[in-house]
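Friendly challenge for the regulars: who can give me the structure tokens for this chain first? No prize, just bragging rights.
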Amino acid sequence: MNALREKIQHEIREGGPIPFSRYMEMCLYDPELGYYSRNAAQFGKAGDFYTSSDVHAVFGRLLARQFEEMWRLLGSPEQITLRELGPGRGLFAQDVLDWSEKKFPDFFQALHYVLVESSPALRQRIDSALDKHLARGKAAMWTPQETSGAVAQTLAVRHGTTEAVAFPSIVFANEFFDALPVEVVGAEGSLRIDSRDGRFVETWSSPSSEELEFLDRYSVHPEAGERVEVPLQAQMHMRAAASLERGFVVVIDYGYSREEQLAGRHRGTLKAIRQHSVSDNPYEAPGEQDITADVNFTALAALAEREGMQTQRLITQSQFLLGIGEANEFADAFEDCRLPQERAKVALQLKHLVTPAGMGESFQVLVASKGISGEKVSKLAGLSFATRAR
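First reply, four minutes later:
Bragging rights claimed.
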């Protein structure tokens, strides 16, 4: 018997059917048995999935170049916080910090990197990957609960001041929002999970006012036979990210706009992933498979704007990375190559990051800013392809 399955069924027996978001939360984030809590073996090419940082260090190197440009647009402040949501094993942070130290020493001097991670197993991996940067105070780890208001206070103490100083910030989230629990709404109502004879069964209840408001504002109401995700937790996290006083929010993920939903696409994107195989059955192996849903970028952008941020036009990861790497012909990727075959291998890895056949067109990039003119932000290297397309 799957231990997490039994734990979920016990909760249902005690309190009745649970929202799908609660089921998904337990499957992914249960402190002992959840998918992200058990171990870190599911990451990387040998695991269930891999991120852009697993492909090649150039992803972190290019973003380091973009973060440095953002820092300069903010006036090269003496201190800047880079907060990464859901940093996984810390590979991206390692690449950004190492490359910044090597190529952008002034930015590195100002940079304090905060990794927001709740999984004990992943925090252990981050400890190992970033031991050098953590030991000298260049990086710090926080749980989501600790993060609110703590970054500024930590930096203030670190620099001998008695008041909390709100330094400019960059919040970065790569494949973070797709893994947050979602509500699921169908024509029958809001999905609930019940248990009968040792099996999970789906039931329905009246949708909440929050769910209906989300569908009205940012999504579509499902027709017969359709299901639509309602990412209320994503809204909460975006509100927290956008509450910075001055700086940027950068979100990279696979997702869609409301216009695409109105055109009949991205309705019912929930899926389970195990060893690179995709299934539409999230009940098969609780805690042993990833569960994700595509990201509603229209909702994220609207919420950022409600928090006083300016959002740029949504672009693809391909456009974003090509814009950053164009100026120096992706020297960040090839610098360590000594032999022709090494260059050929890196060229293939880079191709996977930027081409439609790889990750380039399936991932979208949202850039939002606060405390700096939108005209200046639109000139960022990563947004240059979007500017030309207008």
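The domain at 38-181+232-267+294-380 is CATH 3.40.50.12710 (Rossmann fold). The longest helix spans residues 58-73. Your move, everyone else.
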